[in-house]
C-alpha cells in the first residue's frame, strides 16, 4: 500500500508540474547577433495547439535583468491565465531595437513561429519606454506579422507617410503617465495625428503616474491583455 501511495503521489506531483506554466530562457544567433530572450508559456501548455502570441520589448537598456522584472510585473500572470505565449528579447550587446538590433527581424519572428504555434502566424506587439519605441519601430518595418500595437509609453519615431500607412490596420494603444512631461505631450500630439489620418488609436493618460506606470503592473496588467482581445471585435482587420 505504501509503495502504491508513493507512486500515485509522484504521478500527481508530476501532473501538477506540467499543469503550471513555464518561463524559458533561450538564445539564438541571428544576423550575427546572439539574442537572449524569455518565453512565457500558458498554463497547461499543449505544443499541438495554437496560442495567441505577444512580442514584448523591455525598457531602459533592454537588458536581461530588465526583461526578468517586466516579465513578472507586466506579462507572466495574465499570459499564464489567459493562454498566451509571450516572447521578450533582450538587446544584443546593449544595442537597442531601434538603434541597430532591429536587424534580427523578421528572422527572429520566423524562428519563434517555427518553435511555437502562434494563432494566424501574427503577434500582438508591445513595449515599455525604449521598448515602446522599439515596438512601434518594428511594427512599422514588418507590419505583416502584427495585429495590435501598444506603447506604455511608446510612439512612432520617423513617422513618414509610408510608416504610418504600415501600422494603419493595427489596433493601436498608447499609454502615458500624467506626470511624464515631454513624453505625454509628444504622444498626445502623435495620437491626434494618427487619429486624424483614420488610424484606430486609443490614447490613455494614467492619472498621477510618472514614466513607469504602476497602474499597468500586477492586477493592472489585465488591461494590456484586454487591449489584445479587441482584435475579436474587428480591430486590426
Write a compact overview of the structure shown.
The chain has 237 residues and is of the alpha/beta class.
CATH class equals: Alpha Beta
CATH architectural category: 3-Layer(aba) Sandwich
The 3D shape can be described as: globular
Radius of gyration: 19 Å
Label the structural class.
Answer: alpha/beta
Count of DSSP E strands?
A: 8
Distance from N terminus to C terminus (CA atoms, Å) equals 60 Å
Q: Helical amount among residues, as a percent range?
A: 25-40%
Protein architecture, described:
- This protein has an 8-stranded mixed β-sheet, sandwiched between helices.
- The radius of gyration is 19 Å and the shape is globular.
- By secondary structure, the protein is α/β, with parallel strands linked by helices.
- The N terminus is likely disordered.
- It contains 7 helices and 8 strands, in the order αβββαβαβαβαβαβα.
- It has one domain: Alpha/Beta hydrolase fold, catalytic domain (Rossmann fold).
